[in-house]
Design goal:
With 154 residues, the protein is of the alpha/beta class. It is built from 5 helices and 5 strands; from the N terminus they run αβααβββαβα. Strand 2 and strand 3 form a beta hairpin. It starts with 30 loop residues before the first helix and ends in a 17-residue tail after the last helix.
Length: 154
């Protein structure tokens, strides 16, 4: 046998529709500014304590332009679904965690001579800054990647 179930309502009168909520953060910061801050945070390149020690021990310093190039490398690797990668930046090899945007360790050119990198799924050749790459491509000089022909000869 099936019993009928009824919902009991409160004796209060039905309430009016809720007023639109103010979606601004409590401190009054505009949404666009909060969004930009969050995006900037996701573009940050982090270094593990081990990577920091390796950089310091070897006297390696990275310029702001290098960090920008690394950030672009992380973006490209993430687009391809990479998780753990080897980034080649000039004469450095950096093993990185792509989802965490973290450099795990750093090796210089001398150490890479006989190195074997394990537990990576991708390798990224971190290129020069875009402006430099564009000026190189427009060059009329020899192009070793295209059989030595300059832009004017193609």
């Amino acid at each position: 046998m099936i019993s009928q179930i009824t919902l009991q309502s409160s004796s209060a009168a039905p309430s009016a529709p809720a007023a639109p909520r103010d979606l601004r953060p409590p401190n009054g910061t505009p949404f666009s500014q909060v969004l930009e801050t969050q995006l900037r945070r996701t573009r940050t390149v982090l270094f593990s304590a081990h990577a920091c020690r390796r950089l310091e021990d070897r006297g390696i310093t990275l310029a702001a332009a290098d960090l920008t190039r690394l950030a672009r490398g992380f973006d490209r690797a993430a687009e391809k679904g990479a998780r753990n990668a080897l980034f080649i930046l000039d004469r450095l090899g950096l093993v990185v965690s792509v989802p965490n945007r973290t450099v795990i360790t750093v090796v210089d050119q001398d150490e890479m001579a006989d190195a074997v990198f394990t537990n990576i799924d991708s390798a990224v050749l971190v290129g020069a800054a875009p402006a430099a790459a564009e000026s190189t491509m427009a060059s009329d000089g020899p192009d070793p990647l295209r059989g030595g022909l300059g832009a004017a000869d193609r």
